[in-house]
Amino acid sequence: QVQLVESGGELVQAGASLRLSCVASGIKISWYDMAWFRQAPGKEREFVAANRRTGTDTFYDDSVKGRFTISRDNTKNTVYLQLNSLKPEDTAVYYCYADVGLTYWGQGTQVTVSS
């Protein structure tokens, strides 16, 4: 059974940093591309960042480029999202995503940025 468990979200002030983690079980993330999405209240879920299984290719939405960094530790079967220079508009539930033929989502972790 595939499970993705996110953690690391919390309430912070604008300008702060956070690191989100996504621990995978039931799959070896070294075989798959992984991604982060987010969903703000009243809005659709949107793409944030993705990381190829090689770990060398990364992709970001323009709204987070230069502030967020996706990375992975295949030995820990974990994907990370480093969030720097947080803004109130980054407030959302952040989800980990894996496409292994079937798509899997974590339960999400709440990031709230106060102004």
Short description:
The chain contains no helices and eleven strands. The protein is mostly beta strands. It starts with a strand and ends with a strand.
Output the keywords.
4-stranded antiparallel beta sheet, 115 residues, 11 strands, mainly beta, single chain
Structure, explained:
This protein is an all-beta fold. The chain has no helices and eleven strands. The chain has strands at residues 3-7, 11-13, 18-25, 34-39, 46-51, 58-60, 68-73, 78-83, 92-99, 103-105, 109-114. Strands 2, 4, 5, 6, 9, 10 and 11 form a seven-stranded mixed beta sheet that branches. The radius of gyration is 13 Å and the shape is globular. The model has no long low-confidence stretch (mean pLDDT 96).
Q: What does the secondary structure layout of this molecule look like, with pairings?
A:
Layout: E1 3-7, E2 11-13, E3 18-25, E4 34-39, E5 46-51, E6 58-60, E7 68-73, E8 78-83, E9 92-99, E10 103-105, E11 109-114
Parallel strand pairs: 2-11
Antiparallel strand pairs: 1-3, 3-8, 4-5, 4-9, 5-6, 7-8, 9-10, 9-11
